[in-house]
Design goal:
InterPro entries: SGNH_hydro_sf. This is Sialate O-acetylesterase domain-containing protein. One of its GO terms (molecular function) is hydrolase activity, acting on ester bonds. The chain is α/β, with parallel strands linked by helices. The chain has two domains: about 280 residues, SGNH hydrolase (Rossmann fold, 3-Layer(aba) Sandwich), CATH 3.40.50; about 130 residues, no CATH class. The protein is about 20% helix and about 25% strand. It contains six helices and 22 strands. The strands form six sheets. It has a seven-stranded mixed beta sheet, sandwiched between helices. Strands 16-17-13-12-22 form a five-stranded antiparallel beta sheet, with no helix packed on it. It has a three-stranded antiparallel beta sheet with strand order 14-19-20, with no helix packed on it. Helix 4 packs across helix 5. The longest helix is centred in the middle third of the chain and has 21 residues. It is globular. It starts with a strand and ends with a strand. The relative contact order is 0.14.
């Protein structure tokens, strides 16, 4: 069997932020999921504002309640020893992927830093972009991703006799680039991906990119009508080799932007299942909007979907199951009218162009939520009938959710295709 190598790339939600508590799951004690002890362990390298590396924080590794000594610590330890009071998305992904593929070892590591755009603003110094710095040079986060992936791959090869030739990269980003034009965001993603792909290829590793669409904020923030969320859909439409895990609005938050322990576990598990399914030679397909048709006051929204669509009665959704019109006509209701169509009843027959949004909501109230767990304010209830009971969170089921989108509707045209 071939060992697995899983990296996370992005900002704080790409496991730079570890959520407490550690969930009570035997899988999260899997000793075959390993990480580097340098830097911040699973969380990746510890960068100072000037771009230099901080000292290693070995103290974040504990064995049987005792801190691992800084001096003489091994280069690699089981990831379950790291942040023992928290739940890491990468540990969840590695544990589930290992269990489903019987991989002998799985290496995990983040290359991320909170609050960073793809490309740094002109007045920023140090580690200020996950792809490029203000002076145009490649970010040390990219360099760290490649170097850490290679070190883990070499260790996996030495321990198992088989060095992995693939690196799965979980892409979790977009909060810092929420207002960056979607076209610019996609261009930066393409460039970063090409740079990382070339560097990994030089070291015998081929990346497989698994993308997510950010959830957005709690009711205290601005919602999730972000250009970066559109950018993710644009990137997916342009490149069929990219894998889309799905939108992250169904998962609970720890505060107003970071996923909580349960959310981390469920997102990680979903990614782990995707890796295992792809490794078994089976495709991973998710629902996507394709277009609209208008019949009087009825708006039919069509989807390309691997399984029949369903409305989830327990989902937290804005508007009509997540559908709303920011201005113009109103929505009286929405229902799944066929396996691949949602029919929206408008409160009048529209005469002027308008925008239909789904799980794409600009929040202006800023109402503080009652308390944790928080949920994204711009949620939706539309998913497919596919469901798998969670291996990590009892009572929860994983689903394929429809991503957030914004669709232009012109009554004079009668019908139209969706363009991200």
């Amino acid at each position: 069997m071939v060992p697995l190598l899983i990296m996370a790339y992005g900002q704080s939600n790409a496991d730079r932020y570890i959520s407490k508590p550690r969930l009570d799951s035997e899988l999260l004690s899997n000793m075959s999921v390993i990480t580097l002890t340098s830097g911040l362990g699973v969380r990746g390298r510890a960068y100072a504002p000037n771009g230099r590396l901080h000292k290693n924080r070995i103290a974040e590794f504990t064995i049987d309640g005792k801190r691992v000594a800084d001096e003489g610590a091994p280069r690699v330890l089981p990831a379950t020893y790291h942040e023992a009071k928290g739940t890491a998305l990468l540990l969840s992904a590695g544990a589930v992927a290992s269990a489903l593929t019987n991989a002998p070892l799985t290496g995990v590591r983040a290359a991320s830093k909170g609050g960073l755009r793809f490309v740094s603003l002109p007045d920023r110094e140090g580690v200020s972009g996950i792809y490029r710095l203000a002076d145009g040079s490649i970010s040390p986060i990219v360099t760290g991703l490649v170097e850490d992936a290679v070190e883990l791959a070499d260790h996996l090869g030495a321990q198992t006799g088989v060095r992995p030739d693939r690196c799965d990269i979980l892409f979790l980003h977009g909060e810092a680039d929420r207002s960056t034009p979607a076209e610019a965001y996609v261009a930066q993603f393409r460039e970063a991906r090409a740079e990382i792909t070339q560097r990994l290829a030089e070291q015998g590793l081929t990346p497989r990119w698994i993308l997510t669409q950010p959830a957005g904020t709690s009711p205290r923030g601005d919602g999730n009508a972000w250009q970066s969320r559109r950018g993710i859909l644009m990137a997916l439409a342009d490149d069929p080799t990219l894998i889309f895990a799905g939108p992250l609005y169904p998962y609970p938050l720890a505060d107003h932007i970071h996923y909580g322990a349960e959310g981390k576990a469920l997102i990680g598990e979903l990614c782990g299942r995707i890796i295992a399914q792809l490794d078994a030679g089976e495709p991973w397909l998710t629902p996507m909007p394709t277009g609209w048709r208008l019949e009087g006051g009825l708006l039919h929204v069509d989807f390309d979907t691997p399984e029949p669509l369903r409305i989830d009665a327990d989902a937290r959704a804005i508007g009509a199951h997540g559908f709303h019109v920011p201005s113009g006509v109103g929505i009286a209701g929405a229902e799944v009218s066929s396996d691949s169509t949602v029919t929206i009843t408008l409160d009048e027959t529209p005469a002027k162009p308008f925008t239909l949004n789904y799980a794409f909501y600009r929040n202006q109230k800023g109402d503080p939520p009652e308390g944790p767990p928080f949920y994204p304010v711009g949620g939706g209830a539309l998913r497919t009938e596919w469901g798998e009971p969670s291996m990590l969170v009892p009572g929860r089921t994983l689903h394929k959710w429809v991503p957030g989108f914004s669709m232009a509707v012109d009554p004079a045209q009668g019908a139209g295709r969706f363009v991200a």
